[in-house]
Amino acid sequence: MKNNSYRQKYLGRYGLIMLLALISAFVPLSMDMYLPALPGMATVFDVPVSLVNLTLILFFVFFAAGILIWGPLSDKYGRKPILLTGLAIYLTASILCALSTDIYQLIVFRTLQAIGGSAASAVATAIVKDVYHSRDRERILAIVQSMVMIAPAVAPVIGAFILSFISWRGVFWTLAIIGFIAFAGSVAYTETIPRRNDVSIPGSLGRLWVVLKNPGFTSLLALFSMTSISMMAFVASSSYVYQVEFGTTEQVYSYYFALNGIGLILGPMIYVRLSARFDRNSIVKACFALIAISGVLVFFLGSLSPIIFALCILPATVASVCSRPPGTSMMLEQQTGDTGSASSLMGCAQTVMGTTGMLLISFDWGTGIIPTVGAIIAMIGVITSAGWLYLSGKPFIKKSDGDAR
Hints:
Blueprint: H1 12-24, H2 26-32, H3 38-45, H4 49-77, H5 79-98, H6 103-131, H7 134-148, H8 150-163, H9 169-188, H10 201-212, H11 215-224, H12 227-245, H13 250-275, H14 280-301, H15 306-322, H16 324-333, H17 339-362, H18 369-391
Helix pairs in contact: 1-6, 1-7, 3-4, 4-5, 4-6, 4-10, 4-17, 5-6, 5-9, 6-17, 7-13, 7-16, 8-13, 10-17, 11-16, 11-17, 11-18, 12-13, 12-15, 12-17, 12-18, 13-15, 14-15, 14-18
Organism: Methanocella arvoryzae (strain DSM 22066 / NBRC 105507 / MRE50)
Subcellular location: Cell membrane
Family: Belongs to the major facilitator superfamily. Bcr/CmlA family.
């Protein structure tokens, strides 16, 4: 499974997987842990909810921008120096967030947190490509992503628990501790890049365009990143759906969110089981169709009760993350080099699409927040299903041995 050229002297095989899971989880950890505090933060700072939401939206914007820079630089300087630099920025920014005295300071420090965290996410996928190959890569991606998805499941519960004892500042102190643990693990990490680029910094950044000119990579990138629209539309609206629409407490909201998180954890592992019996094409097709069906259920039934809403949206959650290991692996298969640049584009596209979902759900469509969530999910399911039917047979999409099963 593992490329023995890159043995981890200090981390070992499983330590590397744990580190990959942790540094891949900076987005859900940095966002979901303080979701329960969002409605109350507007009152604490005496500002509109829209201003508080900027701490989410700008986090994603700067995360997307940062990830485009760090990935190509990791191809030039190596994974470890970039990882350590980004995590140092993240750790410092988390502490500054905890010390913020007004909403504007918090917004600025959240952008720094996003820039630092983006380095970790950019490097994580590149390390997977460095070390693992073919079907083994899909399995490792599924394992890492399942571990990563524990973060959205437990983060709101932890956040609500922290809020029951101390203020929202405790959330950011917790993130600072997590950042320190990741930094320590990165110090122990042994470099895995097989060969560094010897081009200039502008030349390294220019490799992004080279990768984008690959039609196989770019078309799959556009398709698979669209599921982030529906997922983030739900995540961004979830605290308002449960606490405002259904009137639940912060703690009860965290339990419903944790139920959704179970789907996030199981999705990648379900793919591993299914891939042993079914071909990749059929699994992806079924996942996209299930997203559309789930969206329809949310639209028509989601407003009945919080448990019905949670159960209706659960299939979309499972299907979205179930499609990620094959999607990520297929995109990496399209590239023989420029792994850091490809990893950056993948992370950026998911973040941009996620931000798009957050923006879409913030508009007043005149139908109510729950039907709007359902409509967005159903729309994404239909578009991705049609896109996959179109792309799966195209000759410019490189196929792996797994496609022939």
